[in-house]
């Protein structure tokens, strides 16, 4: 099979690491070679963060470069815009319709771009959803990741069972039920 | 043998465990931190956080001399702190095998410079190995211990950020049972006074010459002949880019960088028409090959800065025209978290227009607008000593609106030395210790003032106030970081006074589990006058929309109450979570 390239982008603290690890383990459990590249340290403190997951028969470089990504999961609108150029021509950009202002916007030096999703849709294959709202409906604002993963699973591949097995094995035991629900909501989105 | 997916650093920890190591010491530093965090999970290995890298290396030296295998880990700049023991450890050699893992940061993901550890390996005459994925990280670590004992030398295992922080598949083995070596007193080998050091220097040179010969047969180097028109000499993560872009090229992948396997390189260059050296940062491999009279291409095509990439090779070698669309999105550099106690302290300093000599930690972010408090950041501990230097250069009048700011862990790392200097040499400055009860930026590691060891055991917690008093600072205040009124009063008194003062601003890091808030803050739009005062401390949870309406993001708010205290109109209310 051809190598699959997935990116998870967001703002430090949004939990992008856990998402990339679940994707990596689903691929590993299917007997594939996997590489995941993460961001630790200072950049995690509210900065723009990106993690990469690549899987296939044999993976060399651990990162995804411009024009290579099959799927981008963006936890925030502006980060979706920033990393959209990494998408392949037929790649899918999944966007959480959520806004976090960078400091330049907070202090009024820059404007947060308007109509990001509408603009991105003109060029890219975009799936957008308000995962925060769905998470709140499910009763736990923290399951945004599992909802996004549920949506992404349709474009990344593997069976529902393979995803759920890995999810259950990865999330804290107390949160298995709510995360499973969240994943399924994403899958049905 | 089982297969697992592991972070490079986790794989190194596994390699250390499998190599039968008994003692490990480190100071946290991105991108090296997770090595000891993972090693701490293995009961068979004693592991600890040391106050700094020099101490960590000396702990490893002691363990090695006593006859067991030992490890020290650090980030690249940590090796500067530890270079004093390193250069002489190269002379004494080892008893039990000893390895230093040093993590470089090309691209500066979380560092103050882009120095190349391979240069230090050369100048200290210490062998250096470099893996290119997690599986090699594990295997090279084990091999490093074998080399260390065989050649009687410490060995450096060098990683880079991309290696340390990427995960790939590894094969696990059992832990080796390594017998302790007997300890014997040996003055000529371990007491480095001039007479013995003269003798050991000869040993060091002979060892390096022998290793250079033997290195060509080490199994960690790999020759892959394909198309012999084009070849690459590379190592570490850059190897992966070569394989990605040039699957048909011949490749010599070096596992050992110091000393270089000369015969192997000469043979490869003889067999391949055009040879490129593809190495991140300094031309360490390239310049040596050129010095042997061999023509290779390198830094005239590839930069000395930042991380390499596959696209870079495509452009330089394949002349591909890769057009990357530009994007004018507002940048999003890291910022202090919502609820961070440093923000509270910086908001007071900003209000009083006080400059700060800064230090290494999350609080370095206090340099950025709109807080704009920190004027200089150099290295661990430098805030206190550089403030002292400013006072001695320009006099008290100049520094009366200056302080030094340093974190609790950084203060114990090297800041304490600088404070002793201030006491000894009659400084009148003000030092603020931003005590958030943890090593914050690297991801919350214990230190000597937290009361817990790396393994989670209870231990004595150094009392920072008592420590400062004990070295002779008479004016020491402990103030809650969120008590802005008291901070303001203490600061005004001390910067204008004529006596050395330490203000310990204390409040745990907002990301620590011990500090879970039970409420968040919300704006009462009826009462809000849109004055913007609450926006001044630059909390990322507080934003203003196009109509000037201020909002607090309830997902992000950690209920620190800083904005609550600032609002003069009572427009901010607390809501139970």
Going across the biggest sheet of chain B, name each strand in turn: 3-2-4-5-7-6-12
Count of helical stretches of chain B:
21
CATH class of the largest domain in chain B: Alpha Beta
Low-confidence stretches of chain A: none
Order of helices and strands of chain A: EHEEEHEHHEHHHH
| CATH architecture designation of chain A | 3-Layer(aba) Sandwich
Number of domains of chain B: 4
Largest sheet of chain B: 7 strands, mixed
Low-confidence stretches of chain B: none
Helix content of chain A: 40-55%
Kindly estimate the percentage of residues of chain A that lie in beta strands according to DSSP. Answer: 15-25%
Class of secondary structure makeup of chain B? alpha/beta
CATH architecture identity of the largest domain in chain B: 3-Layer(aba) Sandwich
Classification by helices and strands of chain A: alpha/beta
Main beta sheet of chain A: strand number and arrangement? 6 strands, mixed
Structural domain count of chain A: 1
Shape of chain B: globular
Q: Strand sequence of the main sheet of chain A, in spatial order?
A: 2-3-1-4-5-6
Q: Which chains share the greatest interface?
A: A-B, 53 and 55 residues
- Give the percentage of residues in beta strands of chain B: 15-25%
Describe the structure.
The complex is a heterodimer of chains A (189) and B (577). Chain A has helices at 16-29, 77-83, 103-106, 116-123, 131-138, 144-156, 160-170, 176-188, and strands at residues 4-11, 33-37, 48-56, 69-74, 87-96, 125-129. With 189 residues, chain A is α/β, with parallel strands linked by helices. Chain A has a single domain (4-104, 115-188), classed as Pyruvate-ferredoxin Oxidoreductase, domain 3 (3-Layer(aba) Sandwich), CATH 3.40.920. Chain A has a 6-stranded mixed sheet, with helices on both faces. In chain A, helix 5 (131-138) crosses helix 8 (176-188) and helix 6 packs across helix 8 (176-188). Chain A is globular. Chain B is globular, with a radius of gyration of 27 Å. Chain B has 4 domains: 3-217, 3-Layer(aba) Sandwich (Rossmann fold); 222-316, Rossmann fold, CATH 3.40.50.920; 341-506, 3-Layer(aba) Sandwich (Rossmann fold); 519-576, Alpha-Beta Plaits (2-Layer Sandwich). Chain B is an alpha/beta fold and 577 residues long. Chain B starts with a strand and ends with a strand. Chain B is 36% helix and 19% strand. Chain B has 21 helices and 23 strands. The chains are: A alpha/beta (189), B alpha/beta (577).
